[in-house]
Amino acid sequence: MRTGAARGALDGLRVLDLSRVLAGPWAGQILGDLGAEVIKVERPGRGDDTRAWGPPYLNDGQGAPTSESAYYLSANRNKQSVTIDITRPEGQRLVKELVAESDVLLENFKVGGLKRYGLDYASLAAINPRLIYCSITGFGQDGPYAERPGYDFLIQGLGGLMSITGQPDGEPGGGPVKAGVALTDITTGLYAAIAVLAAVNHRHQSGQGQHIDMALLDVQVATLANQAMNFLTSGTAPGRMGNAHPNIVPYQTFPAADGDIILTIGNDGQFARFCEVAGRPEWATDERYATNAARVANRDSLIPALRQTTVMKTTAEWLRLLEEAGVPGGPVNTIEQVFGDPQVQHRGLRIDLSHPLSQSVPLVGSPLRLSGSPVRYASAPPLLGEHTGDVLSQVLGLDTVAIEQLRRDGVI
């Protein structure tokens, strides 16, 4: 990985990130990892809502908690923090001047929320026709729900994800369950970054910016993927199946003598090899189980038999046998075990960056691996307003006197 000032794939691209919480900041962090200059515009005195979403907080050198929440730290590296009060005309003027010098704007205000400040797409495109303006909302810029606030948990339920997540109804622990992370926010951030990059390429061809309308609900429905197609092709809505897979068997957790293992058998050859190491070679030729379609049809008899077999060996024994046989399987790790895993460590998925309130801050590394323009880790998530003076001076050319006057007036 390159660090510091090394050139990245998006060097030369300036992004104004007016978003808060997760989906927008996640998109901004991706763009920053790829080399874009990301300026995070925050409310004076408060900043991004997630700065207060703790504990836990980053500890200082003596082990005492600082002001920086773990949640905020997860989505804001490689950014500069500038505090501007956009409710005031002087603050709106500063944002417009920054827009004139920028390529991309990210925002997740309610529909029409920025129009009252003259910071909507139409107003800013008149200042900078090349501006790529990405709006992220719960339900999009139009439609009967457009005015509603949208939150990840709400969208996971409304968008169908919770109808297929968790134990089946009627079983112990049955009922709707959300994903363990704000998955819809994360995937919306990913789609937003993709859309921005597509718009950048379109601008290379046309010279024009555009408005990107990203909705959490749209993304959640789109990422139902094969489960959506199971419904659209059959007319039958899939339900919750715990850890089982609707289209592949065996593809779920199984009990070992000392815990649980995961089997993800994706084809008949893998199943036959599993049967050999499990001491049940006859299953591979049994017409009830020889093909995946047959195993799906007969899962009610196969799964209990598999459970009776897997429980006879420990997790470590199974993982060794599965690896030797080329059968995909794995453990159910805690997050602590994840970061102790040798492959995770080899891939550098934990990074440590210097931080002004602590010796360093641990962060999760980017999964992007580009051979010619690797991601960069230039800076830790910024303190609130840490770069206000630098950005106003270097980007807008304001002198010290002007900046201090804005501070005295409460604009920044």
TrEMBL record:
Q: Which domain of life is it from?
A: Bacteria
Keywords, in A-Z order:
Transferase
Record's keyword annotation contains Transferase: yes
Q: Which organism is it from?
A: Alloalcanivorax venustensis ISO4
Please give the Gene3D superfamilies that the UniProt record associates with this protein: Crotonobetainyl-coa:carnitine coa-transferase, domain 1, formyl-coa transferase, domain 3
Pfam family, any one: CoA_transf_3
Q: What is this protein called?
A: Lipid metabolism-related protein
InterPro entries to which the protein is assigned, alphabetical: CoA-transferase_III_domain, CoA-Trfase_fam_III, CoA-Trfase_III_dom3_sf, CoA-Trfase_III_dom_1_sf
Q: Is Metal-binding one of the keywords UniProt gives this record?
A: no
